[in-house]
Amino acid sequence: MDRKADITQMASQLFKERGYHATSVRDIAQALNLKGSSLYSHIASKEEILWEIVEGAARAFLHSAQAIPPNLPPDQKLKALIHAHLNVIVANLPDASVFFHEWQFLPETLSREITLKRDHYESYFRQAIHEGIEQGLFQVQDEHFANLFIFSSLNWLYQWYDPEGLLRLEQLSNLYTQMIFKSLNYQKLNH
Amino acid sequence: MDRKADITQMASQLFKERGYHATSVRDIAQALNLKGSSLYSHIASKEEILWEIVEGAARAFLHSAQAIPPNLPPDQKLKALIHAHLNVIVANLPDASVFFHEWQFLPETLSREITLKRDHYESYFRQAIHEGIEQGLFQVQDEHFANLFIFSSLNWLYQWYDPEGLLRLEQLSNLYTQMIFKSLNYQKLNH
DNA sequence: TATTGACGAACGAACACTTGTTCGCTAAAC
DNA sequence: GTTTAGCGAACAAGTGTTCGTTCGTCAATA
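ok -> structure tokens follow
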């Protein structure tokens, strides 16, 4: 089923550029030199394509967090989480864009599943930050807001990241880590 | 033309919930106890509604920045800009959501105009930060990234802000200011 | 080696429906 | 008595999807 991956990838690009509802099945097919009806040899519905993209991105985020050793000290854990998060976005920008932008157009049963996965993913960040505060590494006035602040700064990346631009993943990760750690009143100087 | 404002406001809510393309003219009309064709006594096209919302939000952002005295010291200026930005989002969440989410669906001539307004607006932030760095109030490794980081943290607010929630504008503004200033290595302690 | 048959990818045509928009009409308000 | 907000009907175009069919590939059979 190599062809299905082609369709999903092309759809991801078009969904990113024009949005899910503004992209027709015939648009996707045309971009692959096919006719609209031909896609249905490989997919069940347009919605299935969206699901494939969004669920795949959700899984990518989750796996990248689960790959981090849970016994790392919280500052190193947070640093690794930031790096992993940025990597998922940068490595597949169209998928990440569709994930953030179009997940809401899935039917309720499926979108709820995505919400669950996202909450689970975010809990890795929350816990690292919580541990860091407990151990006196971080210092914040409002822990709940600190989490939102950090997710905000990270999630908006897909809006402005330019693969052709100057910022490579490693530098991006360093800059993010630095500013986030400062906003958390990180005590150690060398991280 | 009071009726036109009703239409725009209702459309703003629906666009926020379902997106521009997934909301039909008949949907908007039905929510106002009207028929689709009736809207055309007050509007020229569906696109005009979107323009009204997006351009209005862009103007709101721009005016809120222009109302800040330009001779304020950069730290106070940035603090005021943050407060003003949050205020625009919180005061009209649907418009802000549509502004961030759906501006791209305007035809190119109009979307370019929005981009210009947004760039102009962002330049107020950039300049305050730049001045702050020059005067030694802020200290960052990469000024360009610092700008992106701050906009990211601020712009994502519309994704999670809950008007029924606990966070009021003033507290929100304080928390944002605190974390952003720390991320900028702000030297003075009492701001 | 030649023939058969199954398979799967791609197609054109058609489907029921929705889209944004127009137009001529009605009924009420000034 | 003029204006106008609202309506129903209709429009051309586009939507996702289904259907029967074609055509090339490849393995098994004769």
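The two ends of chain B are 45 Å apart (CA to CA).
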